[in-house]
Design brief:
393 residues; alpha/beta; globular
Length: 393
């Protein structure tokens, strides 16, 4: 294992939908494309004879299975290869001593990629805990934000032109990828009848435009991340990685759910409301009367506290607008109210605007049976910092 794609580049690989990886892009078609930056993805097909080994193994594949990798590409290499590096398209790192082979996947052709756990949680300088926590939520959740590299854009255009099943709104896997937890709180098996992982499907906005969000089975779990964390405790730069892990839960279905979960459940000392962690995307059983009202056999709650019948719904995210129409059913809220759920709803704007958020949070907390921290100057400073990291200034 002399060449391992790692760090942000490995995360980009795991974020790339398999349907995009599999699209064949002829070299001439790529060269003729007007997509900005595509030229950097075609240069690997005209390398000099004495090109550096990683150049030869990686750059020609940027139009194939490595479409999601942006430049420069982060790789772990042997010391001999590091010393020979003169290519600005790569950032090299040493292969750690005692690297567990289970955290490296063979891509063929002498090339390997770090696992999602190793890609995201390998301690390194300057990692920001809130940004990392959002990536960890995504890895443990039901969505991916596909890379927007020129090669990926070209591949997506080809999928849309051919009406590939993965980009169709009625893809069979959509419904099965809507829930993480079943009615009893056990994890849903995101596999087909043959035991294979369900395919990724593109999420579209209400008007039918494609987004960068894809529905997919989880890449990892919080338990797996915890197991990896046990190997890095005490290592240099590990503190922020472990802080990020402390925020993470399984089952988020969109970036908005991730941001809301961090805002509501992170500790007061981190600027959050300190609420108890909920089940994310858990199925809720409906009795006969509730089914008649909602015209559904069951529904899925974004953030559910079953013991107190608390429920937070997130509205306005592209992922939700095509999710079996669950958010569009006007009878859904009435059915949940009939069952006794204490339902509150947030839009993106209500979470992103702190003034609006502050007018709602006290009432919502009362309805859900939570309290909010005292709005002391020190808490408000921490809360503003957290909010800025999640939503920008």
């Amino acid at each position: 294992m002399d060449i391992i794609i790692c760090d942000i580049s490995a995360w980009e690989y795991w974020r790339t939908p398999p349907a995009l990886r599999d699209v064949e892009i002829p070299l001439e078609a790529a060269r003729a494309s007007k997509i900005p930056g595509i030229r950097l993805y075609t240069e690997g097909h005209s390398l000099r004879a004495n090109a550096w080994t990683p150049e030869r193994l990686i750059l020609p594949r940027l139009l194939h299975d490595l479409k999601g990798l942006s430049l420069p590409i982060h790789i772990m290499v042997s010391e001999n290869l590091r010393r020979a590096n003169s290519c600005k398209q790569f950032v090299t790192h040493r292969i750690p001593q005692g690297l567990n082979p289970s955290h490296v996947f063979d891509l063929g052709g002498g090339l390997y990629v770090a696992s999602p756990e190793l890609a995201l949680m390998r301690p390194r300088a300057h990692v920001q805990s809130i940004a990392l926590a959002q990536d960890l939520f995504e890895a443990c959740g039901l969505y991916a934000r596909a890379p927007k590299t020129p090669a990926c854009q070209l591949a997506l255009n080809k999928l849309l032109e051919s009406s590939h099943p993965s980009v169709q709104p009625a893809a069979n896997s959509s419904a099965a990828l809507s829930a993480y937890y079943d009615f009893d709180g056990s994890r849903v098996a995101h596999v087909d009848t043959f035991g294979n992982p369900l395919p990724w499907t593109l999420s579209k906005a209400a008007q039918g435009q494609p987004t960068d969000l894809w529905k997919r089975p989880p890449l990892t779990t919080r338990d797996d991340l915890e197991a990896f964390a046990s190997t890095i405790r005490g290592a240099r730069n590990s503190k922020r990685v472990l802080e990020a892990l402390g925020l993470v839960q399984n089952g988020s279905a969109s970036p908005l759910e991730t941001k809301a979960c961090i805002m509501l459940t992170s500790s007061v000392w981190q600027g959050g409301e300190g609420w108890r962690k909920p089940f994310l995307n858990r199925r809720i059983a409906l009795d006969r009367n509730a089914q008649a009202v909602s015209h559904q056999h069951y529904c899925i709650g974004d953030m559910v506290w079953p013991d107190t019948m608390g429920l937070v719904e997130l509205l306005g995210e592209a992922y939700h607008t095509d999710r079996m129409g669950f958010k569009k059913e006007t009878g859904r809220s009435a059915a949940l109210d009939y069952l006794g759920y204490n339902l509150v709803e947030f839009t993106y704007e209500q979470l992103a605007n702190l003034e609006i958020y502050d007018t709602l949070i006290g009432t919502y907390a009362d309805r859900l049976g939570f309290r909010i921290p005292d709005r002391t100057p020190s808490f408000l400073r921490r809360r503003t910092l957290l909010h800025n990291e999640l939503f920008g200034r």
